[in-house]
Amino acid sequence: MEPVPTDHVTAFRRFNRYFTRRIGVLDDHYLGQDRPLGEARLLFEIGDGASLRELRSRLGLDAGYLSRMAKALQAQGMVRLSAHPQDNRLRMIELTPAGRVEVAEQDRRAGRATAALLDGLDETQRAELTRAMATTRRLLRLAGITVGLVDGAAPDALACLDAYAAEIDERFPEGFDKDDLVRPREVSGDAGAFFVAYEERRPVGCGALRRLEPGVGEIRHVWVHPDARRLGLARRLLDALEQEAAARHLTVVRLDTHAALTEAQAMYRACGYKDIPAYEDNVYASHWFEKRLDG
Predict the structure, then answer these.
(1) Can you give the pTM of this predicted structure?
(2) Mind listing the pLDDT tens digit for each residue in 162-175?
(3) Among the residues of the chain, which ranges form H helices?
(4) Helix (H) and strand (E) counts for the chain?
């Protein structure tokens, strides 16, 4: 990737400083309550109960910092800590009645503060801001997703393939046989590559590359979890696969797709893939594509 221009970094940091000041992140009494934003957010995230491990992963918090916040909230009577009934290694946290009252009041105050802020805009401006925030959230989610190379037999790779197979089995009128998935050996080492996309340590997408013949590779099983769609992640996975193919001195990549996957066909064409005759016998394929990578 090209280096991020300095003016983009400066604009992003300027927005962060303005927004964090406006929502009271710097105040130890967030929303006028007797606690900082960190504790208030933790109370909100606990919801109907969660493990500290889950919260640590979801919020990206240091284990020690999370433990100190949990104990502080416990001392205030806001939460209860206990061992998981089936796994003593897991510490569970849940809201007390007082904690639920606190969260309800927090929600009321946050809604009132937000409405007061938006009151300075007319309806057209509020709609514009809402659209801009949706775009901002989508792009920040995409920026926070990492795409990495894993072994084709890695648990996350196999889990993604299982999810992919289950989904297309429902979408294809004829169903799908898992035996037609690529084998780990085909997408590992010199034979090929397997990429997994992670959002907050959770696998949310995958894509495979295998060598067909000298100079020619095939892209298989590009899949994105439903929760991570419409972010642009499929294109990012496709780009990673193409870069890996080029690094392996492959000058052409091919792929096929089912007639039911119209959105995939549109994406491949938009990314420079050209329709070609069938290059192999695949009972699920009705469209075949090719893209030259030289230059």
Answers:
(1) 0.82
(2) 999 999 999 999 99
(3) 6-22, 37-46, 52-59, 63-75, 97-118, 123-144, 155-171, 233-247, 262-270
(4) 9, 10
